[in-house]
Amino acid sequence: MMRFHPGDEVRVRSWQPPGHIRTPWFTRGHTGRVVGMLGTFGNPENLAYGGDGAPRQPLYRVRFAQSELWSDYDGRPGDTLIVDLYEHWLEATR
Amino acid sequence: MAEETHMHRRHHDMGGLDAGPIDRHEHDHAPWEKQTDAIMRLLVAKGVMTVDELRRGIEELGPGAYDAMSYYERWISSITGNLLEKRILDPAEIGRTMDEVRHRHETA
Questions:
Q1: Structural domain tally of chain A?
Q2: Is the pLDDT of residue B7 over 80?
Q3: Helix, strand and coil percent figures for chain A, each rounded to 5
Q4: Which residues pair with residue A61 across a beta bridge?
Q5: Is residue B41 over pLDDT 80?
Q6: How far apart are CA A29 and CA B1, in angstroms?
Q7: What is d(CA B30, CA B7) in angstroms, rounded to the nearest whole number?
Q8: Residue B20: pLDDT above 90?
Q9: CATH number of the domain that residue A84 is part of
Q10: Which member of A85, B13, B86, B92 has the lowest number of beta carbons within 10 Å of its beta carbon?
Q11: Which chain B residues touch A59 with a CB distance below 8 Å?
Q12: What is the pTM of this model?
């Protein structure tokens, strides 16, 4: 069951828990748009400590404007970056 | 962002930080590096450990060791740590084997 679909605007949760986290620090709290769905995978935050990865998590490709991620970005205005992010790290913006 | 909000930014999660120049040279792998890769593949295939555990172990090396070690040194350190945690290896067994290998090299 997927919560998000291509075209949806999402915000990466700004959680700062300890542990093994696959959500890059530089994306946290930032807003992007879902551009694809990669499948459903065991949760690495659980697998990393010997768990079975359940419940499995949908993994999305999320596109960010570079200027959204880096306040001092001085590349071209239309530059973007795509990051793979698990569903439990994403929230709807509306 | 204030420094205290970086409490749980782990050292490896360095995207966007100044990391200096990147060495883009191609290089050959030493036999022990290929063995390390093979050991990891076997451990995953046999369900002993996951790549997520490998990564977690690497992240827990600490900033000093993480920076000083090469890629496969990080791998074998994490593999060893994970096998100790799972009680598949024990420290005495590793110590004994390291002595044997050292002796073999000295007398070779």
A1: 1
A2: no
A3: 15, 35, 50
A4: A36, A84
A5: yes
A6: 12
A7: 37
A8: no
A9: 2.30.30.50
A10: B92
A11: none
A12: 0.89
